[in-house]
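Reopening this ticket.

The earlier resolution said the output was attached, but the attachment link was broken on my side. Pasting everything inline this time so it's all in one place.
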Amino acid sequence: MVKVKVGISACLLGQPVRYNGSHKLDVYLREVLGPYVAWVPVCPETECGLPTPREPMELWEGAGQQRLVTNSTGIDLTLQMTSWCGRRLKKLEDEGVGGFILKQDSPSCGLQQVRLHCENHRVNRKGRGLFAQSLLVHFPKLPVVEAEKLRNRWERECFLDRIFTAERWRTMGQADGGTLVDFYNRHRLMVLSHSAEGEADLAHWARAGAVEACRAVWEQALSAPSGKNGHCRMMGRMLCDLKPVLSAWESEKLEEAISRYQTGHTGMSAALSLFFYYAEKYENHDLMTQTCRDWLLPVYEGG
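Inline output:
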C-alpha cells in the first residue's frame, strides 16, 4: 500500500496543544492508521501564535461572517487566525498533502456543527472552524473528515479509498493508454463497490486513454460510501469471475458468504477473505491484484 501525506489536527496525535495544555489522542489514528501514512500535524491555534495554555474561544456570528473570539476577554482573533491560514495552506499545498483529519467541535478545526453564538444570545450548531473553512476553500477536492467520523466503517472506508487511490494515481507516472488501463484493472472492483455506473465509465475512459475523464470518474465514484449493497455487488462480480473454475460446492459456499454478509450473520472481512482464498487457490492474478484486497487490513477494519 502506498504511503500518503495526511494533514491532521495535532492534538489527535497526542500533542499537548489544546487550550488547557491537554490533548485528544486518537489511538486508532496514531497506532493503526499511522504506519500507512506520513502525518503532517497542524495546530492552528498554537501555530498562529497563541500560547498554551490559553483562554478558551468560540465562534461568534457578526457582520455576515464567523469570528473567533476569546470567551472572557472578548478579544477578536479572527484576523490573526485567517492571516496565518493563508500562509499555512500554501505550505500544505507545497508539501502535497493528500487528505486531512480534523478535530470535531473545535472553533478552529471543527468541520461541522460547531457551537456558534448569534444575535440575542442564541447559540446554534451551524458553525465551522476558521481553519476548516479555509482548508475547504483552498482544497475543494481534498478528502477531509473529522476523526469522529472514522469510527464508522463506511466513512472510514470511503476516506481511505479516496486518499490511497489518489496517491496511487499521483505516483502512476506518465499516464498513457496502457497505464490507465492498468489503473482501471486494479481499481475496478473498488470503484464498482461505490458505483456501478462509475466502474463502467472508468472502463470506457481508460480504454479511450482519457486521463482527466478517468480522474473525474473515480473521484466522483469514491466520494460516497459504498455500503453493504455495494460490497455485495462487488462480491457478486468476483463470483462471476471465479465461477468458470469453481466446483458447484465452492460456488454455493461463496453465494452463501454473500447472503450471510448481506443479512448481518458474518462480517465483511470473513466474507471477502473467502473470495480471495479461492482467487489464490485458482491463481486468478486479476483478483489478487485488486486494491479492494486492502479492505482486509486492520486499518480498514478499525484496528
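Reporter confirms the inline version is readable. The radius of gyration is 22 Å. The CA atoms of residues 134 and 221 lie 25 Å apart.
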